Amino acid sequence: MKKSGLNLIGVKEFNRALILQLISTSSKTTRNNLAKASKLTSMTLTNITSELLQQNIIVESDMENDVKNVGRNPKYLTISPNSPLVAGIWVSKDFLFGILSDFSLNLIAAKREEFRPDETPDTILQRIWHLADHLLHLSERLVLGIGISTIGVVDTLHGIIKNVTNFFDIKELDILGYLQPRLPIPVYVKNDMQAAALCEMYYGIGREKENFLYIGLTNGIASAIVSNRQLVNNLTGSCGELGHTTINFDGPKCNCGNRGCLELYASVPVILSKINEACGTEFTVFREAMEYCKTSPKAYSILENVSEQFAYALNNLINIIDISTVVFGHSAFYLPDEILASIAYTVNQISIFKNNRTIRIFKTRFEDNSALYGSVCIVLDQLFTGKITI
Ligand SMILES: [Zn+2]
Question: Keywords assigned by UniProt (predicted)?
Fold first, then answer.
């Protein structure tokens, strides 16, 4: 619970940020909808929307005839085509992906660059900088800030990757320290699972649910928690290492020092190699292997095993955090729907809360790009909570 009060200036910024958030995250909204959602008085609301209209951050348009109410003329409020923008870069294990977006996640530009096999900390930092600089020159519109959504354990406060595995022998990378002096706009750095969860919070499942767990399947398995519409561990940047939950005490030894971690049974490379070994295939692209599983009973049975292991690890986590909505993203987007249903079924069978609530599992609507959209959401989160203003 927040204990500090808000002074009058703070209240004004907070209300303005809230209205901007509501307009940005709804496809079309009206002053009536905003009043209901924000519970602000009509005078306060009118002051804020007038200011946003005057600054050309939002625009109003007429409703289509068929939805007009008789005797009234409500207008839709949306983000202006000339509004400021936000930039973001997703640092994945294999590539950089940069985007420029407006506040409603409409992409203005995108550029992807693959890493070469001989990258070093210096070349990676330089490439992030050059891509950021390139993005900033793609539009005449003001860019408020750039978010870096990256693999690894991230010290969010100092913008440093503190630990990362299988990434060109790099252990630490001071992204903020390198980028900030070289760019004319604020830079924010966050772990990619946390960034993806922010994206879900503002533009995905979070529009209906205040509490949820985001699970990302990649070379490992990690998670991020949103509780009361706040990202848990927002500053320390720690992400739930679901992949290192032990599901088999007699299992093989893991890099983390424990035995039988979920990651040894259910990460993307492990699932691919199990399918290839059992079926004599040579899949390297997870999406293609998942398509194949729909037609091959042998490959599908491997996913059924994985779903069981996932369910037990997930249950361990859910028992602790008391959350009943789970969003599967990153490469988990490509898991067949029946496999997600099977994970949900098992969790609900074994959950200690089974008589009180039903655990529901959803797929992200951002395909395997939640972390990409999440990069700009790092900046939007600052804007929507009044930490940066325009
Ligand atoms: Zn482990």
Answer: Carbohydrate metabolism, Xylose metabolism
- CA distance linking residue 40 with residue 361, whole number of Å: 34
Does residue 233 share a domain with residue 341? yes
79, 105, 138: which is the final residue of a domain? Answer: 79
Taking the centre of ligand 1 as the mean of its atom positions, its distance from the CA of residue 243, in whole angstroms, is 7
Give residue 310 CA to ligand 1 midpoint distance, Å.
14
368: CA distance to ligand 1 center in Å?
24
Distance between Cα 266 and ligand 1 center (Å): 12
Task: Output the pLDDT for position 353.
Answer: 76
- Centre of ligand 1 from the C-alpha of residue 156, in Å: 23
Q: Mean pLDDT of residues grouped by 10 in the chain (390 residues)?
A: 62 92 92 92 93 95 67 83 97 96 97 96 97 96 97 92 88 96 97 95 93 93 91 67 86 88 92 96 97 96 94 88 91 96 94 83 95 98 92
Give me the pLDDT at residue 68, please: 54
Ligand 1 centroid to residue 148 C-alpha, Å: 26
Q: Whole domain around residue 238: which residue ranges?
A: 205-364
Number of H helices, E strands in the chain: 12, 15
For residue 217, report the distance from its CA to the centre of ligand 1, in Å: 15
Ligand 1 centroid–CA 314 distance in Å is 15
**C-alpha of residue 246 to centroid of ligand 1, in Å:** 7
My answer on whether 168 and 51 are in the same domain is: no
